[in-house]
Design brief:
The relative contact order is 0.12. The protein has about 350 residues and is an alpha/beta fold. The longest helix is centred in the first third of the chain and has 26 residues. It holds the Pfam family adh_short. InterPro entries: NAD(P)-bd_dom_sf, Sc_DH/Rdtase_CS, SDR_fam. Belongs to the short-chain dehydrogenases/reductases (SDR) family. One of its GO terms (molecular function) is oxidoreductase activity. Keywords: Oxidoreductase.
Length: about 350
Amino acid sequence: MGAATSATSAATVVATSVAFGVGARLLRPRARWTPSAARAVLVTGCDRGLGFSLAAHCRSLGLTVFAGVLDAGSPGARKLGGLGVHVVPLDVTDGRSVQGAVATVQQALRNDPQLSLAALVNNAGVLVFGEFGWQTPRQVSLQLDVNLAGTMNVTRAFLPLLRRPSPDGPGGSRGRVVVVTSHCALASLPALSVYAATKAGLQAWADALRMEQAQYGVPVVQVVPGSFTHLSGILATHEDHAREMDEAMTEEDRQFYGDYPRRFHEYLSVVSDMGRKASESPTKLPDEKLHSVFEDALLSLRPKERYVHEPWRYTLYHTLMKVAPTGVKDWLAIRFASLPSFKEK
């Protein structure tokens, strides 16, 4: 009887907490801190695509922006420099490079006592398109090192600066960690197994980090951006990756797969060409809703744990993936990806 009563009481507490939590979220005002040059944001992976777009947008809001770039001489880096963005060489897989970026931001904070680091936006990422059985160990390690370990290393290095109270923030507010994940973390797709694994890992890591850092006043926010692969430049090097996969194939692989890998990579050549053009002349992404979502993640005094930006078909797809049986899920994922398929001889 006592155990049953305790269980009932616990269930009541949980249900009440959930109800209050949902109500508070629905009624919560969208209070924001005001963007100003006294607030700094560091964005990683700004040579092109989403990182370039976010750095440019944050600068247009009046924030002080540090843009981490792999190549300080890239078209994206030069464009951002012309906008008044502080371009910082940053290879997230290189400890010395990460410490150099920390030192750059730290020096800027020393030079201006009113300046604080308001946010670290972990955006840098690498995507290799191809079946797991085709990808080389180097390609697998590259994605793990950049997307997952690199994000962790950069975050660890910048946490001391993020923990510092902002001189002009409400209640001595501290900086926050923003983690860019992916729709692939919500539902994996064929030919993106390694990329999806890194993004799912980031999601799990960010969930735990959010709970750890809450006691220090450092919010951890996830953003799942929409589909803009053709504009991001993330597939700009697909042909190089395809060549590496092809050269690593054994004679047995070639006999088994036949022309499947060739058809697969040729199918992606159009997106690859668009990616190269996006890299050669990066521009701000033409999606104001996406930028608005990131503004909420950056500026909200009480940010949500996860912001998802997606077209309606993504919403429908992910809803179906939650309730459908395995066979239907697999069929949906294959249809959603719309990639060439293997034809057995």
